[in-house]
Amino acid sequence: MVRFYSPRLPEEKVLRDPVHSYIHIKSQVIYDLINAKEFQRLRRIKQLGPASYVFPGATHTRFEHNLGVYELTRRICETFDRKYPSQRPGDGLWDPNNDLLAECAALLHDLGHGPYSHTFEHIFGTNHEKIGQQIMLDPHTEINAALREVGPNFPEQVASVIAKTYPNPQVVKMISSQADADRMDYLLRDAYFTGVSYGAFDLYRLLRIIRPYADGICFENRGMHAVEDYVVSRYQMYQQVYFHPASRGMEVVLHHLLTRAKYVFQHNSLPVSPQLGAFLQDNWTLDDYLMLDDGVMETNFLTWTENSDPILADLAKRYLYRKPLASIQIDDSTKNLLPKMRNLIKQAGFDPDYYTAINSAFDQPYDAYKPTGKNANSQIELHQDDDSLVELSQLSPLVKALNGTFQGDKRFFFPKMMLHESDEPELFDPLYQEFQKYIKNGRLHYLRQPKHK
Ligand code: ZN
After folding, report:
1. DSSP assigned state of 3
2. For residue 216, which of 153, 173, 180, 273 is within the disulfide window of CB 3.0 to 4.6 Å?
3. Distance 109 CA to ligand 1 centre (A)
4. Residues 113-136: pLDDT tens digits?
């Protein structure tokens, strides 16, 4: 294979990081990529978006997370170079020529994210993975210029690792699989910054027992409990942080706010910064995308709080001043309550299109641990003394119990005011009481449900 080369920095750069203590920058290309303006822009995009309204400490950014994934990948490569260097092609061990490629791909794996990625993509049809590749391949970007210093085809090679088409599965799975540097970093980092205590796992031990095999990355059997711990931490972070109902309630407000902005922009006129305007009129370029960040979005929202469109102004205030929609868990047997509830919400003066939503946490792009089904090929394997591989849930009763359980829920969102006492009791009380009766019916129904579905 082609040897990728980048000069070593005359002096290693070391950044402090609260999660990994230190991030070591040794080669010129990594240093140049971090300094590229398209990468620096990630400092202005929060990793967890609206979740910071629920966990006030969670204002960490995409910038730190990308650096963290780079550092973990660098450490894994260092371990592989030392313990498992390939002797001849096809021996299933690690080719140290891949170090630089893996490190660059790790550093750039979330390069294409914009503000509020999940919601933004849904409304404007953007795709952070495709945009990330575009930034790497476009000859006008500083990222592309830095990558080309390694070799003329290096930008394509790095993009192919992130697109999972690079032929060496070890490199691909180090950055994207059920147990990869990406997830190891975001679980620890999100746990640290949200302040929850259940996201922690033994990273030190995981990095000691990780090893390459012909089709990817696995772990030494003797470290099974560290892997188990990682899976449990993942499960808890999804349930307690990523699927938090109030954070989803804020996401729904954000979704409706942007939808309304698009409507007002196209039907009347709306004061908006030109970069966001390009999206509201469905005619945007990569340059427009790169000019967006959380600050640009929030500045627009702030202007909209004064807008003459009452729905837009109200939703902008609800978002900026943290007024999430309330919610109730629903399923097929309680969905018959929804038309009645939507009708009562309308009678109370709210347009149901902008003040209600059904949000299903299963739709989140993060996938729960799943050794069977459509992600079967990315199951976690444990390496045995006889060189065979055994899938984790075959050996761990804990992981076996978690495997296939009901993760996340489906919720109906509505204005919190529907649960409150009214200022005009004669007019609204009967309406609110009726609404609350439906809420109680829904909740009672859930109390009677068996625990496992
Ligand atoms: Zn990531």
Report:
1. P
2. 173
3. 6
4. 999 998 999 999 999 999 999 999
